[in-house]
TrEMBL record:
NCBIfam families the UniProt entry points to: YsnF/AvaK domain
Entry protein name: DUF2382 domain-containing protein
UniProt cross-references to InterPro entries, sorted A to Z: Bac_photo_RC_H_C, DUF2382, PRC-brl_dom, PRC_barrel-like_sf, Stress_Response_Assoc
SUPFAM superfamilies: PRC-barrel domain
Region of interest called Disordered, as start-end residue ranges on this chain: 270-295
PANTHER family with a match to the protein in the record: STRESS RESPONSE PROTEIN YSNF
Domain DUF2382, first and last residues per copy: 167-281
Domain annotation PRC-barrel: ranges: 16-84
Taxon lineage: Bacteria, Bacillati, Cyanobacteriota, Cyanophyceae, Oscillatoriophycideae
Length: 295
C-alpha cells in the first residue's frame, strides 16, 4: 500500500486534523526512559487517509538520520507539546531502525524491517513465558506480503490517543456587522430653458416746426428808416435730436444651489438561537480531578 505525506492528502491538515495545532516539530521521547529521541519531521498516511507513521528526525541525538515510528506506538501529549514513543526503549533501539529516505519509495520489505524492531520490543516485554510468545509466532506465520494489511497489527497502527486527548468545546456567538452598499444615486445638473421676453422703452424725436404768419397790409407795422437790411444768405440753425432704443440681454446670478449629504442613523436588531457545548463527564467513583486555568 502506497504511503503519502500528510500535506499531500490533507493540505489544510493543521485545522482539519489537529484543530490548529501542528505536531510537526514536536519532540519525541522514549516511552520508558524519557530520553529524547528526536523531533517529528513529517507524517505518513496510507491511500485511505489513515495515519501510519511519524517520520522522526533524530538529528544530533543519534546519527542524524530519519526513522519511522508507527502511529500506534506514539502517545501525543498536547499540553506538554511532546510525543512519547511507547515502542522505543532508548536511543540504542532507534539506532537499529532502517534509515528513511523520502526520495525512495517505501515497500513491504522496508516496512518489515521497521516493524521487526518494534516487534522485538513487544517480544522482549513478554519473553520468559511460553504462552506469551505463542501469539507472536502464530502472527509471524500468517504474515504474507500479498495479503498483509495494517489491521493485522493494531498495536503498531491503531491511533490511540486516549491517554492524552484534547476535547474542544465549541460555542456559537452572534456577530453583528454591517455592509455598505449603493442604495441610489442623485445627479444634479443644469439645463437651459428659453423664453421670449419683451421690453418697451419710450424714445423721443425732435422735429422742427416752421410757422409763418402774414401781417397783411392793414396790420403791418412800419420799421424805422434804415432798419431794414435787405441781404441774402441769412441762415437760422437749430439742432434736432432723436432717441433710439438700446435693448440687449445680460447674464445675472439668479439662485445659488448648495449640494451636501446628511446621514440618518437607525438601529437594526436581530436575534438567533446560539448553541454551546458543555463538557459531560460520566464516571464511577472519583477518578477524575477537573482543573481550570487560573483567571
Amino acid at each position: 500500500m502506497a504511503l503519502v505525506k500528510i500535506h499531500d492528502f490533507y493540505p489544510n491538515y493543521r485545522d482539519e486534523i489537529f484543530g490548529g495545532t501542528d505536531i510537526k516539530g514536536m519532540d519525541i521521547y522514549a516511552g520508558t526512559t524519557d530520553e529524547k529521541i528526536g523531533t517529528v519531521h513529517d507524517i505518513l498516511l496510507d491511500d485511505t487517509g489513515r495515519f501510519r507513521y511519524l517520520v522522526v528526525d533524530t538529528g544530533f541525538w543519534i546519527f542524524g538520520k530519519k526513522v519511522l515510528l508507527p502511529i500506534g506506538s506514539a502517545r501525543i501529549d498536547y499540553d506538554a507539546g511532546r510525543i512519547y514513543a511507547i515502542g522505543l526503549v532508548d536511543k540504542n533501539q532507534a539506532e537499529q531502525l532502517p534509515e528513511y529516505d523520502e526520495l525512495q519509495p517505501i515497500d513491504y520489505d522496508y516496512e518489515e524491517r521497521v516493524r521487526g524492531v518494534y516487534r522485538d520490543r513487544t517480544a522482549g516485554t513478554t519473553a520468559g513465558t511460553t504462552a506469551a510468545a505463542t501469539p507472536a509466532v502464530s502472527a509471524a506465520a500468517t504474515r504474507n506480503r500479498d495479503t498483509y494489511n495494517y489491521d493485522q497489527e493494531p498495536h503498531l497502527y491503531d491511533r490511540n490517543d486516549t491517554d492524552h486527548r484534547n476535547i474542544k468545546l465549541y460555542e456559537e456567538r452572534l456577530i453583528a456587522n454591517k455592509n455598505r452598499y449603493k442604495a441610489g444615486e442623485v445627479s444634479v445638473g443644469k439645463r437651459v430653458e428659453t423664453e421670449v421676453a419683451r421690453a418697451a422703452v419710450p424714445v423721443e424725436k425732435e422735429r422742427i416746426v416752421i410757422e409763418r404768419t402774414s401781417a397783411g397790409m392793414s396790420g403791418a407795422e412800419p420799421v424805422a428808416p434804415g432798419t431794414a437790411n435787405f441781404q441774402e444768405g441769412e441762415i437760422a440753425r437749430a439742432e434736432v435730436y432723436e432717441e433710439t432704443a438700446d435693448i440687449h440681454k445680460e447674464a445675472f446670478v439668479r439662485e445659488n444651489v448648495e449640494i451636501h449629504k446628511e446621514v440618518e442613523r437607525d438601529m437594526v436588531e436581530g436575534q438567533e438561537t446560539l448553541r454551546r457545548e458543555e463538557l459531560q463527564v460520566d464516571t464511577e467513583g472519583k477518578p477524575v480531578v477537573e482543573r481550570r486555568p487560573r483567571q
